[in-house]
From TrEMBL:
The protein's name in its UniProt record: Carboxylesterase family protein
Domain of life: Bacteria
Native organism taxonomy: Bacteria, Pseudomonadati, Bacteroidota, Flavobacteriia, Flavobacteriales
Signal sequence residues: 1-18
A GO term, aspect molecular function: hydrolase activity
Source species of the chain: Winogradskyella eximia
Amino acid sequence: MNKLLVALLMLVSVSLSAQDMATYTFSIKGNDTIKLDVFTPKNIKKSDTLPVLLWMHGGGFSGSHRAYPDDNKLVKYVAKEQNYIGVSIDYRQLRKNTATGFGCDCSKDEKLETFKQAVIDYMDAAKYIVVHAKELQIDTTKIIAGGSSAGAEGILNAVFMREYFLDNAEAYDEVQFAGVFSCAGAVVDASYINKDNVVPSVLYHGTKDQLVPFDNAAHHLCEPTRDGYIILDGSNVIAKKLEELETAYYFNIVKEGRHEVSSIPFEDLNAIFNFFEQTIINNDVIQTKIIKTKN
């Protein structure tokens, strides 16, 4: 086989594999042009509309990106194995190159502003896919909000506290979430979770998470005397609220686990999407709590 033919075959192969992914700009804010990647199943029919996982990566609001290997692997997986549309988004990294970072030197007000802007970026991405649902072949009644670490904080606050963080919440009325997939996330105040916004939720968290609290505790375990002292409601508080509201959840607790539990649980993905099939598609109420001990 000559070199030209090999090159042509490689080009065709790359082209075919790339047909399932498209990149779009969903927002421009100042110097930030914010994009998302959409992965579509190869066998999708023109008449199909599919559920979507709208994924927000982690990174402490200061790093990582939508195509980070694990995040990229997840949205590819849902398109290939679950017949979902997989969407991975970028968002503004407002704590990048700041003197105070996002730990105990970062003031409470700065943290709340960071959460607010992350919610805005996430909701803008969600609104984009709703507005363009026809060409993206998305079922807008089956949007699962997902994220890890900082991304999980972003999506949980977007799903359960949009009225708190958005000055113009009514502009996003067409965005409705059907489920949540959170890896080591928290909300500012779980009392905002109510019968009108509650959805079936997958929650992963380590009981000794040193960054995002498992229960009702200080972010980054900051002492009350520090500028960055702010109490958040972690997965354990959220799960109790879901139970109180008789809503489905799949809560995976890792005893003694720290923030490494924010990693995407690839080994559990079949079980996770079976849960969404049962609760979102079939409307079953399933409340499952799995307790593991860190190895």
